[in-house]
Amino acid sequence: MIKIQKPKIPAGLTSINLEEIDDHYVYRSLISDCIISEAEFDKLHFDQVVFKNVTFINVTIEKMDLVDVVFEKCDLSNLDIKEGIFHRVEFIESKLIGSDFTEATFGNVLFKDSILNLSSFGYAKLTQVRFDNCILRQADFYETKLNKVEYIKCDINEANFANTSLNGVDLSSCTFEQLTTRIEDLYGCLVTPEQAIGFSRLMGLKIVD
């Protein structure tokens, strides 16, 4: 199992309202039990921040930078976070349906017990990232760089891995009926015998009993 560094969260965080901040730098704060809607932020930096039970509606955050941040039971569906930077970040029991992480950079990030259907990681860079018991149906990993990335007991049905190397990626505990990928990108991917039969169709093989 890949070692993922946990966020460094100190005790005694200060409760704040994100919509009332004047600075682009949010430090040692707790944002909880609120709805953030119809908002646009530019170049926000979060350092040692916990989001708990927060819902984002029609929110765009240009080039967001997060270090040591936890999202717990949050709804970030359709959140636009293109080109964001995520370092030591956790998403726990959260919804990220349709969230856009295009060209984002992830390092030491955990997605656990979360729903990421239709989310986009196109052209993103993922290093030491774990998806644990997540639903990733129709998620888009087009031309994504995966380095030490784990998918553990995830539903990845109809996910798109086109132009993304799966060398060293273990999909054996995941469930799926169909994936979009290329034959050459499957080299070194770890799968079960049953999954291998499904992938053989990509190569035009016909299984004979």
Automatic annotation (TrEMBL):
InterPro entries: 5peptide_repeat (IPR001646), PA_immunity-related (IPR052949)
Pfam families with a match to the protein in the record: Pentapeptide_4
PANTHER family: ANTIBIOTIC RESISTANCE PROTEIN MCBG, PENTAPEPTIDE REPEAT-CONTAINING PROTEIN
The protein, known as: Pentapeptide repeat-containing protein
